[in-house]
Amino acid sequence: MVLLDVEDLITYFETRGGFVKAVDGVSLQMNEGDSLGLAGESGCGKTTTMLSIMRLLPSNGQVLGGKIIFNGVDMLNIDEDTLRKEIRWKRMSMVFQGAMNALNPVFRIGDQIVQTIRAHQDVDKRVAYEMVEELFSLVGIEPKRARDYPHEFSGGMKQRAIIAMALACRPDLVIADEPVTALDVVVQAQILELMRNLRDKLGLSMILITHDLSVIADTCNKAAIMYAGKIVERGDIVTVFKHPEHPYSQGLLTNYPSIRRKRQKFAPISGRPPNLLFPPPGCRFHPRCPYAEEICKTKEPEILELDRGHYVACHMKNL
Amino acid sequence: MSHEKPLIKINNLAKWFPVRTGFFQAIRSSERKYVKAVDGVSFHINKGEIFGLAGESGSGKTTTGKVILRLLEPTAGNIHFKDKEITTLGKSEMKEFRRRAQIIYQDPYESLDPRMTIFDFVAEPLIVHKIGDVEKLVTDALERSELTPPQEFFYRYPHELSGGQRQRVAIARAMILNPEFIVADEPVSMLDVSIRSSILELMVKLREELGISYLYITHDLATAKQVCDRIGIMYLGKLIEEAPIDELIDEPLQPYTQALIAAVPDPDPTIEKSKAMIKGEIPNPINLPPGCRFHPRCHYAQDICRKKIPELIEVKKGHRVACHLKT
Fold first, then answer.
1. How many structural domains comprise chain B?
2. Most buried of A54, B122, B193, B245, CB within 10 angstroms?
3. Interface confidence (ipTM) of the complex
4. Do the Cβ atoms of B266 and A259 come within 8 Å?
């Protein structure tokens, strides 16, 4: 069943210099049980896409077009009250980037999660506390540690607690923004293992936002590559990662270091991503693309299905 | 690479930081506590070689890098740079050493002075060392760092540059005195993935053109594999394994090294997933476990591991390991 259907989403930020076209025509589909990896460089619009879906954009950001259907609910036309009471955190929750460092240092971790639970569910404190202890054993922390303060937790444990908080109301979809970026590699492997286990155990659907392609390869079954506010390629993980068709995905993936691959000479993508106040005309990747032709400079490529479930936005591939 | 005499040789290097204790604690026990950030580390780096130093946060890799440059004074041990003992150098000799040995920091958003133009920032070492023809040397350095055309960058400020460009500026400054040795402390970990490979490529290119040796400090074994010739793995202030890079990744001997390698995720979705072979995190470095520092997390720990500190012993040519069960 389709869990999330985003169609032609457009989100701009209003700034003194004009509109920053952070998300410009993004489409995504997810079925129940899918884990989707959204990859791209900083500033390509990955986080903005997710904040638009959660309807948590900062005040200068605005969704100017498109559709977001989640669990059959039209997310862009639902009133704030119902959204807060029925959807956000209950059906769809988020692990924010750096959230582990946003735990309040003067409150016990358990109490902070109790607060989250009670904001969304009508339960008394004691019941909520029991729920926290249950969540803690689910994410691999001793339940009695719920009485600890954040400084008594290590980085990995804090991240587990944040994941517990995201799971507090048993949502259908968890969006995780760079959940392992600040962690050491051994702890990162522990958290990734936890996320894979939770996905299988709870039948959870996940969106993983990260610039780290190997983290996506390690946990997701679908992948989407974003560049300058647009999705340039999406499909199932093996297709996108093993047989990328868009020159940008190819550039990212062939230059990605791996300890298992033979040492190779890098062929870095030259240049840098455009300023989204003034994105280049035509294909936004054309100034950096080694295969760019005349048409790429003038006409924006549509994202088309190249093969079953494999979408690519490139004039050279969609002939 | 070459098998000449080592350029840098460190022997039993240690850096202990005293722990500040309260008044009452100080009265109650006369024993002074230390964080043993680096505790008896020995290795060498050959001329033109890139030596990696990897480990998790808190393993002491950055402290080792700083002590080698004497940005921190060592508590014990020797550092030889081309037969010269660095630890006892006087002020004027130190200045000479600083021309030969430079550092590139992790975060180009913080290591560049926001109020200095790129020209002033890159030229500063020349002025400190009173070296002439500043403009030509700065132009050359920027060009070598592939910031072209160099004149375009002269009067710009760091905030006008991207992260990758900033790191290139930091490299240009480190290179301007023609150093022979560079400590690169996680030079790409703050950069976007697509930029990383070009910065690493630049470092390798400069090694080939100018014969520079690097100490490449990193937590990322995948980038280490791309650039290093040899690598050492640190855990709680000790070097626990050292080998040529391919050998270390293909046949790691120390259980911690094995766990570290198994934990690295791969961009290939069809191969085995990353594994968390060990539980928990690096313990507090103030109360170090006796014996092998890794034994509380080690699956193979025996009695001897709890009592005796294992020494780093050569088991194969160029492959040293500190583990009672392998030596």
1. 1
2. B122
3. 0.86
4. yes
